[in-house]
Specification:
By secondary structure, the chain is α/β, with parallel strands linked by helices. 35% of the residues lie in helices and 19% in strands. Strands 1, 2, 3, 4, 5, 6, 7 and 8 form an 8-stranded mixed beta sheet that branches. The structure holds S-adenosylmethionine. It holds the Pfam family Methyltransf_25.
């Protein structure tokens, strides 16, 4: 059997690398994770979610008041969303903002590769600070980064201050985590993914509790916008719906997510579930997610929008 969670994640801070609960999608610890080290994974997940990014960008274009000339993609990671936004708003300059220089370098490389280097630039910042030099934006996209900040309300307020009056802040949070497998996969007890999701809720909660300055809030995003001085302007959910048989990119995403769950839940999952996960993560096995025929990707991502008055 090919080893997976050791070779694939070599050099990564394993205990901090657990995957998401159903609505969180991520579950990494922020303060001590080397985000750049998982650049490949971040790029794969963003690429698989391209239909979501494009649908959300269309909706934002229809929701925006006035011209969109300046866009910030905060917590951009490798910048896949920055590119989608640059294509959707062809008159806009887009700034990919992240704390990890390695990911900004990736974003710059992707932009250059698509001939967008003139319109997609990068800026290093430790959110929620560091946006001031960028000036007022018409649109700010925050994809699954706010939940990595200790005080989410204060973060929304700080990020919102970089909007021009009437500008939009789009926050990707919540939704439904990805499903890759049928309920019964012909080995082990049916319902493995539901059990993994339940386990990862605890990992996510521990991640949040461990953040510097962590503040527990009800995850009611429109209410959080209001508390942060923004006006809620709608929430919409977009699907990633890639049926079986999945391509290699989608299989890579499935592998990444199951591998993170394997690591995050190694100490709490029952032995039979761990054994099934190991088979799913066996790169050579016909029963593994790299090869089996029934792997799909179904995920729902919610975008909450707030407007600066
Ligand atoms: C879960 S990834 C999301 C990446 C991308 N937005 C997406 O949706 O695919 C979170 C990103 O936020 C960045 N990040 C986390 N905490 C940050 C902080 N305090 N300041 C700036 N960037 C941060 C990480 O480097 C990482 O690229």
């Amino acid at each position: 059997m090919t080893t997976h969670h050791t070779t694939h994640q070599a050099g990564h801070p394993t205990a901090h690398h657990a995957g998401p609960g159903p609505g969180h999608h991520c579950g990494h610890r922020t303060e001590d994770l080397d985000w750049a080290a998982i650049g490949d994974q971040l790029e794969r997940s963003a690429r698989v979610r391209t239909p979501f990014l494009e649908g959300a960008a269309d909706w934002l274009a229809a929701t925006a008041d006035g011209e969109v000339r300046r866009v910030l993609d905060v917590g951009s990671g490798p910048g896949v969303a920055s590119l989608v936004l640059a294509r959707r708003f062809p008159r806009a300059g887009v700034v990919a903002v992240d704390a990890a220089p390695g990911l900004l370098a990736r974003a710059a490389g992707l932009a250059a590769g698509e001939g967008l280097a003139g319109r997609v630039t990068t800026h290093r910042a430790d959110l929620p600070d560091g946006l001031e030099p960028l000036g007022a934006a018409d649109l700010i996209w925050a994809g699954q980064v706010v939940h990595h900040l200790g005080d989410q309300t204060a973060a929304l307020a700080a990020i919102g201050r970089s909007l021009r009056p009437g500008g939009l802040l789009a926050v990707v949070e919540g939704g439904l985590g990805p499903r890759f497998l049928p309920r019964d996969i012909g080995m082990g007890r049916p319902g493995l993914q539901a059990r993994l999701e339940a386990g990862m809720e605890n990992v996510f909660a521990a991640m949040r509790a461990g953040l510097p300055g962590s503040v527990a809030v009800t995850e009611d995003w429109p209410a959080l916008f209001t508390a942060a001085g923004l006006t809620p302007a709608g929430s919409r959910t977009f699907l990633v719906d890639a049926p079986a048989p999945l391509d290699d990119l989608g299989r890579g995403y499935a592998y990444d997510r199951l591998n993170r769950a394997r690591e995050g839940l190694a100490d709490v999952l029952p032995a039979d579930d761990l054994e099934v996960l190991d088979r799913l993560l066996d790169e050579e096995s016909e029963a593994g997610v790299r090869k089996r025929a029934d792997v799909f990707c179904l995920e729902a991502l919610t975008v909450h929008v707030g407007r600066r008055v």
